[in-house]
Structures are given as C-alpha cells and as structure tokens.
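Hello again, I could really use a second opinion on something today. I've been staring at a protein lately and its backbone has me curious. Please have a think about how the structure follows from the sequence. I owe you a coffee for this, so here goes:
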Amino acid sequence: MTSVGIDVYYESSVLRVGAEAADMVEGGVWILYADPIPDALEEVSIVHAPTGELTREMRAGDRLWLGEDSVELTAVGERANENLRTIGHVVIYLDQEDTQLLPGAVHAKGSLPAPVAGTSLRLTAP
C-alpha cells in the first residue's frame, strides 16, 4: 500500500504498554507483541493490533514509524520476519549496534517517543 509516496508494507496500532515496558523503551529495547499475548510477557511488551498482513520482509534501510516519528532499520535477524508474520512479535534494539543481533530481533538507529495506546506503527520501504 502506498501512502503519500511511502511504500507501507505493515501497519498496526498500539493497544497498550506493559507496566515494565516503559523502562525497557527508555533503555532502547522495544518488545512488540500482537494481541493476544502470553500473560508472562504482557508486563514487558508493547501490545499492538495489526491491521493487515506483513506484505514483504523487513530489510536494512527500511523505516519503522511510530506516529509521525521514524527510525531506520540497520539489521534484521533471520527469524524476525517469520515471528512478526505469525505472532506479531519482534524485538527492536534502538542505537545498540554493539549488541549481538538475535534471530528474532531488529537493530535500528535513531530515537522514538514513548509509545501510547492508539498510536500507529508502520513499516515502510525506502
């Protein structure tokens, strides 16, 4: 889907932010999970509701948007696309290039505001 010249290939909306997720976000770690989410992960996760399917795989150079703010993806773990597609789950490390890339994770550069319920999440191709 194209929106104002931007190729959007995944869209979702933040439903709620777990009580401990704010501390993780402040530390540059975003744990995204689509609803329904396992109870054990609710407190540390940003729970979201996808509005459609992942229409192409995430790649370095793509952008993750939270509302009108975005960061650039710099690396994508080998299982990140499958996890996002099947259970709406991905861990995003912001400005942590020295951290080992885990299979289900994505590295990104830049900063985003704290997520709040109702904010849109989008992935876009360059």
